[in-house]
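Dear colleague,

Thank you for sharing your sequence with our group. We've completed the structure prediction you requested, and as agreed, I am returning the results in plain text so they can be pasted directly into your records. Please verify that the sequence below matches your submission; if there's any discrepancy, let me know and we will rerun it promptly.
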Amino acid sequence: MSTHYTAQIKQCQNCRKDFSVEPEDFIFYEKVKVPPPAWCPECRDKRRFCFRNGHSLYKRKCDLCGVDVVSRISPDKPYKMYCQKCWWGDKWDSLEHGRDYDFSRPFFEQFKELLAATPHVSIFNTNTVNSEWVNQETDDKNCYLNVGGHFNEDSAYNTFEVRGKNCFDNFWVWQCELCYGNVNLERCWKTVFSQDCFDCLGLAFCFDMRNCQDCFGCCGLRGKQYYIFNQPHSKEEYQKFLQNNPLSSYKNILDLKKKSQDVWLSMPHRFASIIKSVNSAGCYITESKNVKDAWYVDKCEDARFLYTVAGLKDCYDCSSLGWGELCYETGHSNGLSASKFCLYANGGGAADKIGSYNLEYCFATPSSSNCFGCCNIKNQEYCILNKKHSKDEYKQLVEKIKKQMAETPYVDRKGRVYKYGEFFPIEFSPFGYNETTVQDYYPLVKEQAVEQGFNWSDYESDVKYEFSGYQIPDDIREVNDDVLQKVLKCEVSGKGYRIIPMELQFYRQMGLAMPRRAPLQRHRDRLNQLLPPKSFHRMCQCQTATHNHENGRCSSAIDTPYSSDRPEIVYCEDCYLKEIA
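Please find the predicted structure tokens below.
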């Protein structure tokens, strides 16, 4: 007989705010055999992201072979770090630090010691060619400072680029080529400074476009060509406009961006971007079914509390996870099944194939299965705290450990209690708050982060650069090759950055002015364009007379990431489709 659940209001152990656990949530927790969470969804999200270092990369020596390599772990950290060749090689035994479980001590206390004793891999990338400086990427060729993507070529400074070519400075772009400075594109070509565009080519400063080409500063168009600021023009007029307003000039880019954003704000915005999806709520959802509280989600089903994921089914609380099933509180991995409380536990092999399963409380355990409380092992099964067991012994011990975790919980330095069913304590992160993705989405200053119990990194490289004093010309056509030897100063952060050869070639090919900001600052600028991963309850703003509204305006209530204090005009789905489609 099935159990009937009712919604419950719980108080978050971390922020002390109330949150709701719905009947369907209880059904999922019963399915994966975990208790309901003690932290609210937002705090759980922060907790997972504080373990993800995407963009903070360093040079340091491998602790096994001594070679200088690119590393996610700064040289001042107390962790051993092996280069990829050593970590994946056979010069060390990943079970050498295995230990018996001590039932007199909390599980998390023992796991923390194992995390500190085992060698960490320098960086996560697989099957890459000439792409030393990419992190959490697979199958890249000739890429630089890409993070979180797969199957890319000749690209740099992208976050979540998939199957792209010759793309620079983008966030969440799929199957795109010759694209620059965009957010949320799919199947676009030669598109710059645009957002939420699909199946387009030759766009600049455009928002919410479908099947368009050769458009400039437009918003909400479908199947159009030769439009400037939402007005139609002839081919000759359009080409003359481009000649008179070249994007090779940095001054022109700033002026045209402002004019284009005025057009964007004049047009109605869809309450949320949910494309080819059924019974789904959140934003930036494509080809999904029955997903809720989902943000930047592609091809997922029966899942909730998701952020930047693809190919998931029956999953809750997952971040930066691709191709998984029956996963809970898991992130920064690919190809997992029936796994809980895991990080960097990739399945191995192709990024879109399941290769690991039945993992719990595992950190960096690729191509492994039936492991509990393990870290920095590979190709293993039936291990607890990195020690091998027989199948029967493993099952018996795991059940005893779960019971002991409830009876002897871990208490962190802020007094928060961790029993079985809670993710890793935030103080276990090998990274500082300011090194990780959580700083991108929930920025804090050092004092705030430390007060909340997070780690912080004060590391500064002892390599000092002298700024060249080079004044970047306004027009890319005036930039010579000697810029490649210059150390430039970011106009916002004041930090140094360089232009790499393929980047300069791209700017010249595309006729784009050189940026005045460092790559990491440009990444943060793009993040400022993102809608928050929250829903606000408000009314549709449509007052169009031809939509036959009672009392002259739409009466539909909407849940949208556009808060009421934002400047955009926000429509419900019906009004938006009548106005735009």
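Summary note from our side: The chain is about 20% helix and 30% strand.

Kind regards,
the structure core
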